[in-house]
UniProtKB/TrEMBL annotation:
Organism encoding this protein: Bos taurus (Bovine)
Main location: cytoplasm
Subcellular location: Cytoplasmic vesicle, Secretory vesicle, Acrosome
Name this protein carries in UniProt: RCC1 and BTB domain-containing protein 2
Keyword tags: Cytoplasmic vesicle, Repeat
Amino acid sequence: MLDVGKWPIFSLCSEAELQLVRQACVFGSASNELLYTTIFVLGTNCCGCLGLGDVQSTIEPRRLDSLSGKKIACLSYGSGPHIVLATTEGEVFTWGHNAYSQLGNGTTNAGLVPYHISTNLSNKQVIEVACGSYHSLVLTSDGEVFAWGYNNSGQVGSGSTANQPIPRRVTGCLQSKVVVNIACGQMCSMAVVNTGEVFVWGYNGNGQLGLGSSGNQPTPCRVAALQGIRVQRVACGYAHTLVLTDEGQVYAWGANSYGQLGTGNKSNQSYPTPVVVEKDRIIEIAACHSAHTSAAKTQGGHVYMWGQCRGQSVTLPHLTHFSSTDDVFACFATPAVTWRLLSVEPDDHLTVAESLKREFDNPNTADLKFLVDGKYIYVHKVLLKIRCEHFRSSLEDNEDDIVEMSEFSYPVYRAFLEYLYTDSISLSPEEAVGLLDLATFYRENRLKKLCQQTIKQGICEENAIALLSAAVKYEAQDLEEFCFRFCINHLTVVTQTSGFAEMDHDLLKNFISKASRVGAFKN
Ligand SMILES: *[C@@H]1O[C@H](CO)[C@@H](O)[C@H](O)[C@H]1NC(C)=O
Ligand SMILES: *[C@@H]1O[C@H](CO)[C@@H](O)[C@H](O)[C@H]1NC(C)=O
Ligand SMILES: *[C@@H]1O[C@H](CO)[C@@H](O)[C@H](O)[C@H]1NC(C)=O
Ligand SMILES: *[C@@H]1O[C@H](CO)[C@@H](O)[C@H](O)[C@H]1NC(C)=O
Ligand SMILES: CC(=O)N[C@H]1CO[C@H](CO)[C@@H](O)[C@@H]1O
């Protein structure tokens, strides 16, 4: 399962829906998107950026049928917003904002549904996509870069400032190079080639091209200051740039108003400047064209962030408690976005918790069975000993592989054993009373709490007295108080139930005196 809990938009989805999420992307100030094997989208539908054929926003996931059956390899988004997506087959689809032709279909009409780009890309397999605010860049499997969209600063690399309505290959000094990685800042573009050189073009007002100047570049230029340094990856923030070298070092340049260069001050830098993170090698850099935030992950798994952090400026790399750079953009960037398409690992690996859950009541691996009400429940001695004090002693010298139980009913005992494997219970409030009894007996305090929770959530006029009696019997004071309050608030109906008529004498006396003390019988 993909852990998307840190992005607020996903609180609109049910647990069951979240279980299905395999890939996700969150973008825009309020608009958002999530993607499953079947694609679902939700959020603000500005410019049709949800691709549904209308501009209706939604707080419930809606199915994006027009891409059904397609597997997504990568995806990027602009500020309009517009979306550029490549499938695992290398096809490119675009939709959303199109005022600058950033959808690459020759028009400037907003794209309400995904448009399959074929012009100039029909025989190409696209393996990477990147969006600036209003332009688009793709990388093909043979190392060619194509660009289209907004051109005001030369960001499509065409040598002119005319908007580029369809994909055009970026040539000039990239003509004979093999590009291996691309990125876009707000209005600039970058490409890393297989020799480790970095080529840049577009807007340069804050020095984000790293050329030592602030003049825009209409065609690709090599970052000469990186002479002798082999770059592997490039990442662009709104107006700053990060690169990662083949030796695990990071260089940054461009705008620095929020400390996003990690240099310890806020001076913009138009030349590559080393970022000192820690002795450990950096293996991943992260930035997003909608944010002034930077992040990096070390080989040891430490995640650092610097730059804009929830409105504050962090001018030096700061060690976070995260294990992924994605979390930096979920928690610190404003708004919370994803800097890349999130994907679950494509293997069927189970976590420890998932594996244990699967083994509960599995006769093939069990070494102990309980016989309750004539039915077997299969368990593992070692797990029971690890999870429950009672079993630690009772199973100590136990050589048997069968234990008969008569103190508790089958559903109650089964729920107890299952709890030891899963940490959770699913029972009716009446059954939870039985489990509460068991939990008290075995001194399982956490289980006791879970039972009380289930009971509170299942209380009604019909069962209120029974639940109250149970609370008294098992000395669950908090629960007793809760049931008592419920009875008082529903006194007329509760006193007419069969539960009330059959109430134990002492309990009734107690109930009446307590009820009169709180003034339940006035007028
Ligand atoms: C381009 O996309 C727009 C918006 O979806 C659409 O109206 C138009 O027909 C498309 N143009 C082409 C040439 O497909
Ligand atoms: C792309 O398409 C246009 C128009 O059809 C054409 O002029 C151009 O040469 C094509 N090729 C590239 C690589 O841009
Ligand atoms: C640095 O860049 C920012 C834009 O992000 C700009 O507002 C600021 O004026 C620049 N600072 C200097 C000293 O040029
Ligand atoms: C800011 O830091 C950079 C990199 O360490 C340094 O070159 C520059 O002189 C500093 N600027 C100021 C104003 O301290
Ligand atoms: C900002 C800018 O220079 N826009 C130009 C982009 O190209 C179109 C022509 O396609 C011009 O009309 C715009 O002025």
